[in-house]
Amino acid sequence: MLERSQLADNALQALHDEDYDVPFNTQSLNHEGLIFMGGRTSKSLDGDWTFCVDLLDTGLRQKWFSMVPELPENRTEPWDYDPFMGETVPVPSNWAMLKEKWYFFEGSAWYTRALDFGEISDAKRQFLRFGAAGYDCKVFLNGEFLGNHYGASTPFCVELTGKLRPGRNWIMACVNNTRTRDRVPMRNTDWFNYGGLYREVSCFETPKTLLKDFFLFLVPDGSFSRICAEVEISGAQSGDAVLTIPELDIEEKIPIRDSKGSVTLSARPQLWSPENPVLYDVSLALDEDRVSDRVGFRQIERRGTDIVLNGETLFLRGISVHEDDANSGKVTSETDLRRRFAHAKELGCNYLRLAHYPHHEKAAELADELGFLLWEEIPVYWAIDFANPGTYRDAENQLAELIKRDRNRASVIIWSVGNENPDTDARLDFMKRLAETARRLDPTRLTSAACLVNHANNRIEDRLSEHIDVIGLNEYYGWYETDFDDLAAIGRNSDPDRPVVISETGADGVVGEKGPDKGLFSEDYQAEVYRRQIAALRELAYVKGMSPWILYDFRVERRQNIFQNGYNHKGLIAADKKTKKKAFHILAEFYREIEAGTGTTGSVS
Ligand code: GCB
Description:
By secondary structure, the protein is α/β, with parallel strands linked by helices. The protein is built from 9 helices and 32 strands. The strands form 8 sheets. Strands 21-22-23-24-25-26-27-30 form an 8-stranded parallel beta barrel, surrounded by 4 helices. Strand 23, helix 5 (389-406) and strand 24 (412-419) form a beta-alpha-beta unit. Helix 3 (334-347) packs across helix 4 (361-370), helix 5 (389-406) runs parallel beside helix 6 (425-441) and helix 8 runs parallel beside helix 9. The radius of gyration is 25 Å and the shape is globular. The chain starts with 10 loop residues before the first helix and ends in a 10-residue tail after the last helix. Bound molecules: (2S,3S,4S,5R)-3,4,5-trihydroxy-6-oxo-oxane-2-carboxylic acid. (2S,3S,4S,5R)-3,4,5-trihydroxy-6-oxo-oxane-2-carboxylic acid (GCB) binds next to loops.
């Protein structure tokens, strides 16, 4: 049967064209369009959006986005979907958490909502901002395709200027979470593939000329006495921006040429640290536009095998954490974040690894306020199509979006460019370039990657090491690797010239009746692995921190044995985010010792 839809260019094409999606993959919504948001007023577009899962991509084939509202009785053709009525879902949300029949759904889903504007001023620009959409998000306004964004965990902006009409407008977003070879991550991950508009969506207006990017930092020259501001504007080539930091008596003009400007100033701010997380109110103005932020100043560097904060060596007492919740999936609330930091504090942490993708932007804001150091990461995870230039472009864009989003956060000390990737030539080139990009966009932080042990040689040996500042090492002695003696052998055989942090180690431990009394998956077994790991690691002088795997149990499709039931149980706290396991207390005790200066790592250097 042929379709009669006038909405498709021609009815046959809608059925027979297998390149129907090609025009919608421009990836034109990327870091270049990201706008600095601090202090801007925006209108929330959270709440109910009409929603439909679309396994066969019928919406793109039939061009659902070009439909206009029409009463059912007035329609002249049978619509296969009506974006303007019917089922709604709340935004932000992950569809997997809303209905059982959507739990494992992977494909496209359509979100639609009205956007009402009164008068539209010619003197203003209008934008949408999506906090994150997993994974590909195609955006339409009143039937027009405005671009798509790749990457499930970073924000993007869509310019609406000149396209809005007074009164009612319709936004549609087609969000697709299909796992494909070219994406970042690829097809196989040890976390749940949550799809949807799962972070906040908003719209905002700016003057014609706007402050697009604002990076403020303590110049990392060891003097702790110079602050640098870098600014980028949009809508004009030149102008004068004004930087104000009242508590430091700074009010300074930044001349803009070719849309960019920078200034370096003498200043002696109090230094930010986990013990003294002091933040300064800063603002930046350019003609009509004004943004603000709360910024901490501190210097992080590596010296030999040391990590040095504000001139003092540091041990990173950390824990890894996923963005995952038994009820809300990847949707993160401030309550959830505050609970996470409270648990980390109880554990004695000064550091968190936000694995394995950019977490909600509020996480780093709170870490700034509460005094935690952060490792932030992009999902260059396990197998990636390292030889594919399109995949590189996607990974680099995710990195750039993360850095532009968070580089005013004093808490963030490490940009990580990947996790457990095979040591091939293509991977080396790919990740080396990512590390260079991180340094180019932000010369004030350390780079890292979570590397694997070379089991053949029992050594820390990864060709990427010389291109990053900190070697992250994932090792699972006591769990995937049985012989703990090998961990000591790695200690003896390795001679890294830069700091090593144990970016992961751990074991599953299932709490309560569901877990076994002894052996693998028991709480006791997990606790014993922690005891033995701590005993081995405290001997390694070049280990300058650790972030064991992981704070909370988390949902994952690939773990299906009778103890796992769709969860990774390596949490020190169960998925209820309440029940602490025995291993929690063992790690807490070690961190207390380290903090008191009696448990620092030791004899092998
Ligand atoms: C790893 C991965 C992490 C997994 C963990 C595990 O090495 O980096 O994503 O969840 O091991 O539990 O196996």
